[in-house]
Amino acid sequence: MSIEKLHVALADHAYDIVIGSGLLSKAQEWVPEKIRRGRIFILTDENAGRHYAASLQAAFPQASILTLPHGEQNKSYQGLERVLDWLLDGRADRRSLLIALGGGVIGDLGGLAAALVLRGIPYVQIPTTLLAQVDSSVGGKTAIDTRQGKNLVGAFYQPVAVIADLDTLTTLPDRERRAGYAEIVKYAFIRDRQFFSWLQENGDKVLKCDPAALTQAVKTSCAHKAEIVAADEKEQNDLRALLNFGHTFGHALEKLLDYDGRLLHGEAVAIGMMLAFDLSVRLGLCPESDRHLALNHLRRMGLKTSIDQVPALADCVTDNILQAMLNDKKAEGGVSAFIVCCGIGQARVYKDISAEVVRTVIQSGRKAAA
Ligand code: NAD
Ligand code: GLY
């Protein structure tokens, strides 16, 4: 299989995304030479580490490795402290390199630690989940969660390279693959109707890790992300914000379940996107037929599409969901600004949405969307 390369064209810190098969054991090839001569620190979790740390160590035999337990709980003050202590105890200096080998949790945590230690050392993302390969490893958003909400302490800090080895996805549990798929179809919903048609045809193959379909899906997703990030790195205009489609709702649902694995991030995003579609239809911005197409596709891909399909949320009242949304950092002036879909392939930020319509959307999301 050929190796695909995309470029994230940022003025001060441009980098490449490398996508292909068998990349881990030669990962040093894509790390700038002056960086790979310093101390190397590989941060991973027990699952990614068990399967892939040894192959990566073939590329960086001198590296020191920290293996964390798996799970969102790592994205915490305690998790961050542990990583910073490991780097400082290991005498990291400004020429050291941190490699984040794992899913979005390890990538977000490792990226933030790299941004903070010694006021910033270089880092490389080696994403091993579908979600991380198509979204979180690209674009430099790094963060931990706090008791107030998700990703509330973080930094924009770009990696020096992203190396997406598609082989790593073969060991990913089916549920995690589906959750990652939600972030793929998000690009189609917000900016690429043709990609949506392609996913309708090929989504099953992507989930089965068919090499050609997987390459195409990861490449198309990363190309969208790279273009958006290059144009609006720090979410200062409304372009990068579009990537948060479904996330204000989704983050609130995740928070209510304490990020404990009962609802994965991508699963929450899939439900959140359907709530955002419902909102868009109610505002008269999106044809009902497109909401239906989106719903059918997500269902066919095995994703939950409404709040009432999550047993753990059964007793959760609408006001709790609204309250959790207030702390989302995308909520400007209460929960009045949302990303809406104006028909599959087009999205925009819509301001001044009344709390009442949001409440109605949540209430109807608590009955299975038809
Ligand atoms: P994750 O990192 O928790 O990984 C999911 C599970 O898969 C974990 O149990 C992990 O141990 C396991 N795993 C990882 N790679 C594996 C492999 N190859 N084989 C078998 N098991 C493997 O979760 P995720 O879905 O990758 O990422 C979710 C996180 O990403 C959330 O914290 C979310 O907020 C964040 N995120 C960040 C951005 C961003 O722009 N920075 C974007 C989207 C999501
Ligand atoms: N995942 C949202 C962003 O990177 O902006």
TrEMBL record:
GO biological process, one term: aromatic amino acid family biosynthetic process
Domain of life where this protein originates: Bacteria
Keyword check for Metal-binding: yes
Record bears the keyword DNA-binding: no
CDD domains: DHQS
Subcellular location: Cytoplasm
Keywords, in A-Z order: Amino-acid biosynthesis, Aromatic amino acid biosynthesis, Cobalt, Cytoplasm, Lyase, Metal-binding, NAD, Nucleotide-binding, Zinc
Domain (3-dehydroquinate synthase C-terminal): residue spans on this chain: 180-331
Cofactor descriptive note: Binds 1 divalent metal cation per subunit. Can use either Co(2+) or Zn(2+).
Location, primary (coarse class): cytoplasm
Catalyzed reactions: 7-phospho-2-dehydro-3-deoxy-D-arabino-heptonate = 3-dehydroquinate + phosphate
Top-level class of the enzyme under EC nomenclature: lyase
Positions with a binding annotation for NAD(+): G104, V105, I106, G107, D108, T128, T129, K141, K150, T168, L169, T170, T171
Family membership noted in the UniProt record: Belongs to the sugar phosphate cyclases superfamily. Dehydroquinate synthase family.
Annotated protein name in UniProt: 3-dehydroquinate synthase
Gene field: aroB
